[in-house]
Amino acid sequence: MPVLNSPYLSIHVSLIAASYGFFGLSALISFSYLLCVIFKKPYDKANIQIYLANHLGLLLLICGNFLGGIWANESWGRYWGWDSKETWSLISILIYAILVHLKLKSKLLYALLSMWGFGVILMTYFGVNYYLVGKHSYAGEKSNFESPLWLIISVIILTIFSLVAIRRNLK
C-alpha cells in the first residue's frame, strides 16, 4: 500500500513504541517500590524515577500521536477518525496526563496508580490489536473480545499484591 511508504510510518511507530517502553519501565519501578513497601525495605528514589519515566512516556506518546495525525491527514485527508486505536491512545494520553499532574504526596498511591495505569497501555496495544475492530486492528471485521484467563489471573494477583502493599504501609 502506498500509505505505508511514508517516512512518518517509522517515526510514528518508533515514538509510540518508545513511549510504551517508558510506561513499562514506570510500571516495573512501581512494582519494585511496592515490593519494597511489602518487605519494609527503603527505596527512596523510586517516585522520582516513576515520575520521570511517566513524563518521558507521555511526551513521546503525544509526539507520536501528533505525527500519526499528520500522516493520517496526508494519507486519508483527516487528522483523526475515532478508530479504536486512536480512541484508546487518547485514553492513554489522558490517564497519564492526569497521573503526571497529580503530584501526589503519597508515594504508595502514586506507585499504585502508575502500576495500574500500564493496563491502559496494554489495552491500547494488545486489546485493540487483537480484540477490537478498526484500521489498526488485526481482529478482522467483527470484535471477538473474550477475557483471556491470564488477564483475569493477572488482575487478581495484582489486586492482592496492591492490597498487601497498602496494608503493610499502614503498619
3D structure, described in words:
By secondary structure, this protein is mainly alpha-helical. It has five helices and no strands. α2 packs antiparallel against α3 and α3 runs antiparallel to α4. The longest helix has 32 residues. The termini are far apart.
What's the structural blueprint in terms of helices and strands?
Blueprint: H1 7-38, H2 46-76, H3 84-102, H4 107-131, H5 149-170
Tally of individual domains: 1
Structural class: mainly alpha
Cα(first) to Cα(last) distance is 60 Å
Largest sheet: none
Tell me the strand percentage band.
under 5%
Helix content: over 70%
| Unreliably modeled segments | none
Shape: globular
Quick description:
This protein has about 170 residues and is mainly alpha-helical. The chain contains 5 helices and no strands.
How would you describe this structure in keywords?
single chain; 171 residues; mainly alpha; 5 helices; 75% helix
